[in-house]
Design a protein that fits this description.
Blueprint lengths: L1 E6 L4 H9 L5 E7 L5 H8 L4 E3 L9 H14 L4 E4 L8 H6 L3 E6 L14 H10 L3 E8 L9 E8 L6 H24 L14
Parallel strand pairs: 1-2, 1-4, 2-3, 4-5
Antiparallel strand pairs: 5-6, 6-7
């Protein structure tokens, strides 16, 4: 299965996928909305082609930028696109341009702590402010509605009494890597992963 990965930052999930060398999964393109991010170095070091499509390249027209992202994936014959730390909402023009499947990894147990503004440390601050006893990771199908697509897999992470957003984020990130690799492995093997199919902690 030809895999495309959308990134915006450090690329640790991309790095985990590339290191796993998953049978049945062939990373063939990495697309970033930001230049000079570490994720592009990760891709280049693994020999995966990269594209940078900045909003400014399209006169600030997000719909045109997202259509170009979808077209880039389609042109590379991508079958599965992964949002791995991609920090932008994909507009309907993306889904019109790209006919493949798109999945996302989110650092909470959706539907909790999802939606607008719930990226990076903001997610973990929200978990702590709510007093939740546990958080986790969700992998879900991407639809035009933010963080609302069908859930494919989840893994739970307990919240410690002394946690702050940074320590919680670090533990969740470890579980992100593991759950993502396990889920892609199952997809690559042809296993059917449907809504509610939850993969627990390692």
């Amino acid at each position: 299965m030809r895999l495309g990965v959308l990134v915006s930052g450090r690329g640790s999930n991309l790095e985990a996928v590339l290191a796993a060398d998953l049978p049945g999964i062939e990373p063939v393109l990495v697309v970033s909305n930001r230049p000079a991010v570490r994720a592009l170095e990760v891709a280049a070091s693994a020999g995966v082609p990269i594209r940078v499509l900045r909003l400014g390249d399209f006169g600030g027209d997000a719909s045109a930028r997202d259509a170009a992202i979808g077209a880039a994936l389609e042109g590379a014959r991508i079958e599965l696109a992964l949002l791995a730390g991609y920090d932008q909402l994909l507009r309907p023009s993306y889904f019109t341009a790209f006919s493949g499947r798109t999945i996302n990894i989110h650092p909470s147990l959706l539907p909790a702590h999802g939606g607008a503004g719930m990226v990076g440390l903001a997610v973990h601050r929200s978990v702590l402010a709510a007093g939740d006893a546990e958080t986790g990771v969700t992998i879900h199908e991407v639809t035009p509605d933010l963080d609302a697509g069908p859930i494919l897999a989840q893994s739970r992470v307990p919240v410690g009494a002394g946690d702050d957003a940074e320590t919680l984020a670090a533990r969740v990130l470890v579980e992100e890597h593991g759950l993502l690799v396990r889920t892609l492995e199952r997809i690559g093997s042809g296993a059917s992963i449907q809504r509610g199919n939850s993969t627990g902690p390692r």
